[in-house]
Each structure stands twice: as C-alpha cells, then as structure tokens.
Design brief:
By secondary structure, the chain is mainly α. It folds into 2 domains: 134 residues, Peroxidase, domain 1 (Orthogonal Bundle); 120 residues, Peroxidase, domain 2 (Orthogonal Bundle), CATH 1.10.420.10. The protein is 53% helix and 2% strand. A two-stranded antiparallel ribbon has the order 1-2. The longest helix is centred in the last third of the chain and has 16 residues. The chain binds protoporphyrin IX containing FE.
C-alpha cells in the first residue's frame, strides 16, 4: 500500500518539475557513497551532528530534500515506523527513473537509517568533475563497484543540470579539441560560454548535461560523449582519456544499444543501493523525520 502512495507522490513531483527526478537520483548516489545507503545525506546539521549537506560537492548543489520529506510524511501517516528514509530514497530514485522514461528494477528493502553522518567522508569519497578518471575509478572500487558500474551509473547525467562552476574548466579547456567540428557543436559551445562566463561570476548558472533530451532518461548522453560534447570533464574523459580504454568501449556500447544501457543501469543501481553501512545495520533506526535522528 505505501509503495503505491510513495509512487504517486513522486509522480506529482516529477510532473510538476522533471528536474526533481534528477535531484532524487543524485541524492541517492550521494547517500550510498558515504557510509552506505543509510539516509545519512538527509540529516540536517545540529549542535551535536555535523551533516553532509555542506560538504564541497553538496553545498549549493544537492537538492530535493523537500520531495523526500513529503513522501516520508505520506508513508508515515499510512504505516508509521516501518519504512526507513534510506529505503524511501532508494525507491524514490527508482520511481524517478521510470517517470522520465528509464528502466524499472526491483528494489531490495530493509535498510536502516543511520544515527550519524560524515562530513569528512562526504568530502573525500565523492568524485568531482575535474578529477581524472584514474582517481575516480578507485572511488567506485572502494564502494564495491566496477568500471562497468561506473560508466552505466554516470549515464544518469542523461537527466539533470550542472552549474557553471562545475563545467567552466571544461568549456574553456579541451571542449573545442574533443568536439566534432560542425555548426551545431560550435553553437552549443557558444551557448555554454554565454551561460558560463570565464570570469566574473555566474557560478550557479545551470545547463542540462544532455542538451538533446534533457528531461528524458535515454542513451543520448553517451552519444554526446562520442561527439566530444560532454559538459563535465569527468564525463568526457570516459570517452576521450588515454587511460579510458575500457570506459571508451562501454560508452560506445551504450551509445549504440539503449537496451544494454538500461539493463546494466538497473543492475548497477541495485548494486549501488545495496552498499551497506554495517554500523547502522546494528545501531540504525527508522527515523520519524528524515532530517533528524530520533530522540
Ligand atoms: C564519475 C562520477 C561523477 C561525477 C564526477 C559527477 C559529478 C556531477 C556534477 C558536478 C554534477 C552537477 C552538480 C552541480 O553543478 O550542482 C552532477 C549532477 C548529477 N549527477 Fe553526477 N557525477 C558522477 C556520478 C554520478 C552518478 C553515479 C549518479 C547517479 C547514479 C549521478 C547522478 C547525477 C544527476 C542525476 C545529476 C543532476 C542533478 C541536478 O539536476 O541537480 N552522478 N554530477
């Protein structure tokens, strides 16, 4: 029963703004990479707890918390104390993907919510866009995820937006040399430069990472990488880096075969969603409010 109402809530939120789908998928990723999928990302800062929301990759960037609050309220009113915030976020991410045209997969449940968060791990474990492939791949290995999982999961960038601060070095860097020369691509680069000036601010101006179908979960993100038009350095590196022999083959495969992408994405999302926090397995709880540890 709660599954149905949870889906409905997500549906309304994505219908009102398709960006919400992207926000929730990213939230789930950032939750799982910091002490496992335990809802730690959802905790607000308090006097006694320093949360993850202000970590470098998250501040002014992670959003969608209100969507989770709404779903949680709904679920609590129907079956109080049963469904953890971590499970809600995992299910919401799956529902978000379906709602924008992506694949369905079954979500294993039973996660507990942590009573702690880690600002430090949030600063060290999450990949950043100007980091090289050689440094990002180990961050996935550390979580038990493979290169294949990484390439498939980054396919999430087929939806959602990036801020100028995260793609400035790319568009004033090697964009011109990676991209195929044609009027459309020139136009796209000029467009990105107009959104994101080289100096003088605009850090929070946004653009879609997949300008072809920004609100559709499809494989056009990989096709853009083939054309050398990835918005983030880290995205384009998967295709263009000299160290990216394996990633390049995977990018080509998913660009050519959307079914192969969907299947791998589903499997990899289950794998990422199963990263466990062994501590919260013991000390964890079902939070009443996703923003605070129970008192
Ligand atoms: C190689 C590792 C990754 C890096 C370096 C990276 C980096 C980024 C950056 C810089 C942004 C833009 C944030 C902003 O400007 O505010 C972004 C957005 C996003 N990322 Fe990633 N990401 C990675 C992997 C992933 C994975 C594994 C997922 C999900 C499974 C994911 C899902 C998303 C989504 C959906 C957005 C759009 C969010 C929005 O619209 O606000 N990313 N990512």
């Amino acid at each position: 029963m709660h599954g149905k109402s949870q889906r409905k809530e997500m549906e309304c939120s994505v219908l009102s703004d398709p960006r919400n789908a992207a926000l929730i998928v990213r939230l789930h990723f950032h939750d799982c990479f910091i002490q496992g999928c335990d809802g730690s990302i959802l905790l607000d800062d308090t006097y006694t707890l320093k949360g993850e929301k202000k970590a470098a990759t998250n501040i002014h960037s992670l959003k969608g918390f209100e969507v989770i609050d709404k779903i949680k309220n709904f679920v609590e009113s129907e079956c109080p104390g049963i469904v953890s915030c971590a499970d809600i976020l995992t299910i919401a991410a799956r529902d978000a993907v379906i709602l924008v045209g992506g694949p369905y997969w079954d979500v294993p449940v039973g996660r507990k919510d942590s009573v702690t968060a880690s600002f430090e791990l949030a600063n060290t474990n999450l990949p950043t866009p100007d980091e090289s492939l050689v440094s990002i791949i180990p961050k996935f290995f550390y979580q038990g995820l493979s290169v294949t999982d990484m390439v498939a999961l980054v396919g999430s960038h087929t939806i959602g937006m990036a801020r100028c601060q995260n793609f400035r070095s790319r568009i004033y860097g090697d964009y011109e040399s990676t991209s195929v020369k044609n009027p459309i691509s020139d136009n796209q680069l000029n467009n990105l430069k107009s959104i994101c000036p080289p100096i003088g601010g605009g850090d929070n101006n946004i653009t879609a990472m997949d300008y072809v179908t920004p609100n559709l979960f499809d494989n056009s993100f990989y096709q853009l990488l083939l054309q050398g038009e990835g918005v983030l350095n880290s995205d384009q590196e998967m295709y263009s880096s000299v160290f990216g022999i394996q990633t390049r083959e995977l990018v080509k495969k998913y660009a050519a075969d959307s079914l192969a992408f969907f299947q791998q994405f589903s499997d990899s999302m289950v794998k990422m969603g199963n990263i466990t926090n062994s501590e919260s397995f013991v000390t964890g709880e079902v939070r009443k409010n996703c923003r605070f540890v129970n008192t």
